[in-house]
Design brief:
The structure holds two protein chains of two kinds. By secondary structure, chain A is α+β, with helices and mostly antiparallel strands. Chain A is about 30% helix and about 25% strand. In chain A, β2, α1 (about 20-25) and β3 (about 35-40) form a beta-alpha-beta unit. The chains are: A alpha+beta, B alpha+beta. The interface of A and B includes residues 186, 194, 195 and 209 of A.
């Protein structure tokens, strides 16, 4: 039995194919705590996933990996956690999440911060971090699933700021109320179809939004965009309300 | 008259939001943002199988207004749900 630790949870993650075990190698757990949850992907689930991506012949191991993460994430609300689709960095101890529709540029924006601010920026998870509450504090976690660039660290950061990245010809950083982007936010979290888990997820989201500052970052994909965002969020500049 | 799908309603950032659950989550993938009065009607539709008149009557009682006063809002909201394919009549 191979145990892993992700989001401070000990997980019994079964695998039929090597891909999954290799992907999660950095998160192996050798300690004494027994598994808090089990994830086991069935052959039927892999077949169904294959049908969903019929035009691209993904290998079974890759499909098992996608199914495994989804199966894991559907259980997260039991542990005061949920999956967020966004890029999370740690900068000066602050956890900053960049959310955007696909293709708009959250990865690009993340890389701009890294480019300008170097080692003061750490990418916790560039694509699908787990958000988990501990003592009332929302933490974003690195996991083995971090997008095609695999930008992640086996670490966590307390989330303090949620930023919607939107394209714009002029850079701007606006402080907003969460309700101004409520639809967009909800599109970037995984809401399970189980009623109790769905309710719990929304409760956790509500708590997250009341503990973080929320921003819109209008970005023209230049270093100036990252500099403006960094200086506004980390407090050196005034911002529009 | 009731909703075509099974929903849960939860407040997020102070706004009531409805999300389809169970198997219906595959049939209705979106979310519905409600205001406070919409939430009252939506919950009536979630909880029971009332006629439009019964909904109007309960809604009016909830807000302590006459049915005449409540009618435009209730009908407008029901119409929105109907146009969204969310009502099962």
């Amino acid at each position: 039995m191979a145990l892993y630790k992700m989001a401070d949870l000990v997980i019994d993650l079964k695998n039929e194919y090597d891909f999954l075990a290799k992907q999660c190698a950095e998160y192996r757990y050798e300690g004494d705590t027994s598994a808090e949850l089990t994830v086991c992907v069935t052959g039927e689930e892999i077949r169904r996933e294959r049908d969903l991506s019929a035009d691209i012949p993904y290998p079974a191991g890759y499909l098992e990996s996608i199914c495994a993460y989804r199966k894991l994430c559907l259980q997260l609300p039991r542990f005061d956690a949920f999956l967020l689709h966004g890029s999370v960095i740690s900068c000066d101890g602050k956890g900053i999440a960049f959310l955007a529709r696909s293709g708009v540029g959250k990865t690009t924006h993340t890389m701009l911060w890294k480019q300008v601010y170097g080692d003061t920026v750490s990418i916790i998870n560039g694509d699908k971090p787990i958000v988990r509450f501990s003592d009332g504090v929302p933490y974003a976690y690195g996991t083995p699933w971090a997008g095609k660039e695999n930008l992640q660290r086996n670490a966590r950061v307390p989330l303090t700021d949620i930023c919607f990245v939107e394209r714009g010809s002029e850079n701007a950083v606006l402080s907003i109320k969460a309700e101004d982007r409520l639809t967009a936010i909800m599109q970037q979290i995984l809401i399970p179809s189980d009623p109790m888990m769905a309710m719990k997820t929304l409760e956790l989201l509500d708590t997250l939004l009341s503990s973080c500052r929320v921003w819109v970052i209008r970005c023209n994909i230049s270093e100036d965009a990252a500099i403006l965002a960094h200086n506004t969020i980390l407090g050196e500049m005034n911002h529009e309300a | 008259m009731k909703l075509r799908y099974k929903f849960i309603v939860q407040k997020v950032s102070g706004k009531p939001v409805a999300v389809a659950v169970g198997q219906d989550n595959e049939k209705f993938n979106g979310m519905i943002k409600l205001n406070d009065s919409g939430e009252v009607i939506f919950r009536l539709l979630m909880d029971g199988d009332f006629t439009q008149e019964e909904i109007l009557s309960r809604f009016a009682a909830h807000y302590g207004v006459t049915e005449e006063t409540a009618k435009p809002s209730v009908l407008a909201f029901m119409d929105q749900l109907r146009r969204g394919g969310l009502l099962s009549e």
